[in-house]
Amino acid sequence: METIKYIAACARPISAAAVFGLVFTLVACSVLPQAPARATLYDFGPGPLQATAADAGALPPLSLADVEAQGQGSDTSTALNYRLAYADAQQLRPYMQARWSQPPAALVQQRLREILGQRRAILSAGDQPIAARNAPQRPAVLRVTVEEFSQVFQSATQSTGLLRLRATVVDSVPAGEVLVAQRVFTVQHPAPTADAAGGAGALAAATDQAAQEVAQWLEALGR
Fold it and tell me: Is this prediction's pTM over 0.85?
């Protein structure tokens, strides 16, 4: 019996110290700064799920220059921007917890290359195929500038993805470049939800439609 009392007496201060230590740990953890929430990254999706080989004889090869961004921040910005047309349409606002995986100009260029490449060979700005080096006419060059790329809210619950790009086609000649044609494409696509995910989806769909329109325009030009 004395042995049991001795063990109990020794156990009481140990338990109290353990409890105090646990409480101190919990309090200390509660005052530590919380890690910032990681922003959600969006892109245009996987694109075509099956590889398609361009038919060399379908349409002439085309050189696609690097797509530029105008009025959308720096070329390296990955902000997913929106406008409140019902409050202040002139203010471009970025989502705080949502970003693009790449700068929008790079995403637009990737999708243009995918869609235009379904019926022709797409070259980079500095590429020249061997057959074209000695040919009298080099491939035409397509230059694209993104002028607007944002989610526009018409109300607190309704928005659209707005893409406006300027496409310029030039022919390369020994003396330089000759302007062939220029056109501005403006596409709006409704967003399924009034948030960043809905805006990203709407802008991806708007880019797909714009790329198809550019492809039809180029074909009508014979380029």
Answer: no
